[in-house]
Amino acid sequence: MQVICLIILLWVVVVIASGQSDFEALLGLKKGIVNDPLVSWNSKSLDSNGCPQNWLGITCSDGHVTSITLNNVGLVGEFSFSAITGLTMLTNLSISNNQLAGTISMIGSIQSLQYLDLSGNMFNGSIPTGLFNLKNLVHLNLSSNQFEGNAVSGFGKLEQLKYLDLGANSFSGDIMQILSQIGSVVHVDLSSNGFSGSLDLGLGTSSFVSTIQYLNISHNALVGEPFAHDGMPYFDSLEVFDASHNQLVGSVPSFNFVVSLRVLHLRSNQLTGSLPEALFHDSSMVLFELDLSLNQLQGPVGSITSTNLKKLNLSSNKLSGSLPAKLSSNSLTGNLPNQTSQFLKLTSLKISNNSLVGSLPPVLSTYPELRVIDLSLNQLNGVLLPSLFTLTNLANLNLSGNNFSGSIPLQEVGNITSVEDLSLVSLDLSNNSLNGHLLPGISKFHNLVYLDLSYNNLDGSIPDDLPDKLNGFNVSFNNFSGLVPENLRRFPVSAFHPGNALLIFPYSPSSPKGVPNLTPIEHRSHMTNAVRIALIAGLVGGTAVISLMCILICYRTHWQEYTRSSSIESGAKKGVSGPNKNVDPSLTSRRFDQDTLPSSQLGSVHDAGESSSVVKKPKDFGHPESVKEEAGISSPMSLMSSSNPSPSINQQPPDNPGMLRVFSPDKLAGDLHLFDGSFLFTAEELSRAPAEVIGKSCHGTLCKVTLDSDRLLAVKWLREGIVKGRKEFAREVKKLGNIKHPNLVSIQGYYWGPKEHEKLILSNYFNAQSLALYLHEVEPRKLSPLSLGERLRVAVDVAQCVNYLHNEKAIPHGNLKSTNILLETPNLNVLLTDYSLHRILTPAGTAEQVLNAGALGYRPPEFASSTKPCPSLKSDVYAFGVIMLELLTGKSSGEIVSGIPGVVDLTDWVRLLAGENRSRECFDRFILDRHRVEHPPRVLDHMLQVALRCILPADERPDMKTVFEDLSRIVL
């Protein structure tokens, strides 16, 4: 009996001791929390076993802590895994979406864990090998942290694992080494990392392919042809597959036997060939979401019999034929089919920016679930369907940029008694040939927020009961007359004019912008004598001030030319040539600093430099071969060993731009980081690679580098003192390297050396010329001037790319200018360079970039009043507006364009002419001569209106999405 009592007593002591141990472990964990919402964690709330009772997020069983669940509770501080290694019964640790930091090196000691979720925090470091000792782990989520390093080995030990999420970190390694290890995993997310390699599987040997249901490997650096050995038939349960935003090539896999696939995303790769028919047949698949946009797919699209498809995006390919689906920016031709009953489940129908002809099929208005119809920018004609305007679920209707005629059929809308049945929010019928009156039925759309009827032939008065919710409104270029309704006077004059000559704006004190009293246009041609006298006096006074400024500017210009000529002549006498180990470093430094390097107007320039705002004649540029013969070649690392690249703003290049030729070091002491699996070379190879200096900017010097494999790179050698510290630099440049777009020259890697000036950014080299050279090259020309159609396409492509940066990546380009826009031959494909480099710069480096933008004419006016101006989405829009003006005028942004040198810049000059209805005088003479018509093409006026809106004050400036949409509506 005594023995039994002793055993019971010992058991009680052990239980209490273990509970006390868990209690102390939790208090130790709490010590690292700075912002502490764990007020319930105190010693007063323990149960009889000594286990925490009613503690937030804590679950106990048999005197032991079994679960810690603290998701989204605002924890801030250091999470100490070592403090909870004694929790021997802990099976669940879930602390997602807080602000916890630290490493997870001790996580392997908690071997009882089955569920581990650390997502949405700031944990860093690499995955410790101890993690793979958690044999019972079923769920592992490390996403959205700051983990890095190679993460490809060890997962095979986690035999119970069903859920794996490593997304949104900086992991690297061959992706197949992970996929080939995991066994019965159901959910895998490896997106937004730096994984490389191909999807050439041999997956049949892994049980992974038979169990996986969700696989997301998007936003990495994957290359090669997906499933080249037809690994797809082995996927028995795959429902979601996302490999978008990589560099995959070849054809789209057939997915013939993947009958469970519901979502397939292969957006933004380099896939070619035709579309697999199996993806569109209801007999084989349950696919309801398919995105193959931003690839190079071509050929016709076969029959679509699937009744399950809800979202189909094949935009930005090279497809032909006809298709009732989202197919923007293709070469689609033909008529809209009338028999499309298979789309009864469609919620969005987009066929914009193609070459569709014919009238609207009546069946279009019978789709019960449609919320979006976008048939803009085609060649559709005929009259509008009255039944379209009575669709109860339709929220967005865009038929702009077509050839529709007749009136806007709103008669049936006027007969609707229950306006709650109408859901229309956005209506765009601009750029058609519609006529007649705007019927009162338009007022029945009480939810209408956006209305654009511009560029038609509508007449009569504007209804005075349009919805008060309108925040976007445009009826310019019509024939409306009468008074502007009071509730519309809050919109700017540009919403009504040009056009509508008989429209009257009575003064309204309640108008936010104080709209002036505008009588009909034909009665506004007379000015009072007092006004004329005031204008004459102002002009005389202004002329006197301008003349004085011109004298000062001319004097300063001549002095700078004199000093620069002296500097160049002095440097030429010291000419550095040939690889010579005995080169005097001081002479090398002087030569590099004094001799202005080739500017962005050089042929085959990846990065547009800022060496000059005035383009030299073609003979000044020379051919690369002759330049090599004159000045020799150097390696990028040898340049680093000589001196630091210095900026040269607004300097003219010499007649014979030279290249440095100095000795290259045998060994590098820094680190080379490559983001692209197709980039396979070492720092030593980069060191000995021949390099040509081809450009210079405020960021540093650009070199064209030839590797041993004859692959060409563009290497930007960053100036000393302008970049952030190593850790922050690495994090930001990796993020920039993950940004992929067909019109973007992506960063492929970087080199970080031990010395301050040894910082390189690597990217692909393109045989392309800058937009500045195409626009501003003087006679005799070597490049053909851009046609009006080519200029419009350049503007649209640039706007599309910048819109992608703004709305999908939420970052500004920050350095938009015509020298940073390359046109790749032979099709003049647009490529943007130098994107978002301000994110890796110090405040001083950013300030210098902004200053340089101002010197070249791209800086927005609001920066002048800011103490620390920084690139923004709005400043991008302004710079894009200046580029648009360059496209329209053929003049450089920094060029003196008025009759009085140095006084009026490009934007002021164009505003002045547009305000005086003399827009024709600002358009490029080449365009006007080529079209040889009495009036400039209507497209020029449309483009000018977009450009002028872009250079409005910041609070009136449109966003880039609006700019892109406006440009996309313009039809030649």
From TrEMBL:
<dbReference type="InterPro" id="IPR013210">
    <property type="entry name" value="LRR_N_plant-typ"/>
</dbReference>
<dbReference type="GO" id="GO:0005524">
    <property type="term" value="F:ATP binding"/>
</dbReference>
<dbReference type="InterPro" id="IPR001611">
    <property type="entry name" value="Leu-rich_rpt"/>
</dbReference>
<keyword id="KW-0067">ATP-binding</keyword>
<keyword id="KW-0472">Membrane</keyword>
<feature type="compositionally biased region" description="Polar residues">
    <location>
        <begin position="579"/>
        <end position="589"/>
    </location>
</feature>
<protein>
    <recommendedName>
        <fullName>Protein kinase domain-containing protein</fullName>
    </recommendedName>
</protein>
<keyword id="KW-0597">Phosphoprotein</keyword>
<feature type="compositionally biased region" description="Basic and acidic residues">
    <location>
        <begin position="617"/>
        <end position="631"/>
    </location>
</feature>
<feature type="signal peptide">
    <location>
        <begin position="1"/>
        <end position="19"/>
    </location>
</feature>
<dbReference type="Pfam" id="PF08263">
    <property type="entry name" value="LRRNT_2"/>
</dbReference>
<feature type="domain" description="Protein kinase">
    <location>
        <begin position="688"/>
        <end position="972"/>
    </location>
</feature>
<dbReference type="Pfam" id="PF07714">
    <property type="entry name" value="PK_Tyr_Ser-Thr"/>
</dbReference>
<dbReference type="Pfam" id="PF00560">
    <property type="entry name" value="LRR_1"/>
</dbReference>
<keyword id="KW-0677">Repeat</keyword>
<dbReference type="InterPro" id="IPR000719">
    <property type="entry name" value="Prot_kinase_dom"/>
</dbReference>
<keyword id="KW-0732">Signal</keyword>
<keyword id="KW-0547">Nucleotide-binding</keyword>
<dbReference type="InterPro" id="IPR001245">
    <property type="entry name" value="Ser-Thr/Tyr_kinase_cat_dom"/>
</dbReference>
<dbReference type="InterPro" id="IPR011009">
    <property type="entry name" value="Kinase-like_dom_sf"/>
</dbReference>
<dbReference type="GO" id="GO:0004672">
    <property type="term" value="F:protein kinase activity"/>
</dbReference>
<keyword id="KW-0675">Receptor</keyword>
<dbReference type="InterPro" id="IPR003591">
    <property type="entry name" value="Leu-rich_rpt_typical-subtyp"/>
</dbReference>
<feature type="compositionally biased region" description="Low complexity">
    <location>
        <begin position="633"/>
        <end position="653"/>
    </location>
</feature>
<keyword id="KW-0812">Transmembrane</keyword>
<feature type="region of interest" description="Disordered">
    <location>
        <begin position="569"/>
        <end position="662"/>
    </location>
</feature>
<dbReference type="GO" id="GO:0016020">
    <property type="term" value="C:membrane"/>
</dbReference>
<dbReference type="InterPro" id="IPR032675">
    <property type="entry name" value="LRR_dom_sf"/>
</dbReference>
<dbReference type="InterPro" id="IPR053059">
    <property type="entry name" value="Inactive_SerThr-Kinase_ABA"/>
</dbReference>
<keyword id="KW-0433">Leucine-rich repeat</keyword>
<keyword id="KW-1133">Transmembrane helix</keyword>
<feature type="transmembrane region" description="Helical">
    <location>
        <begin position="533"/>
        <end position="555"/>
    </location>
</feature>
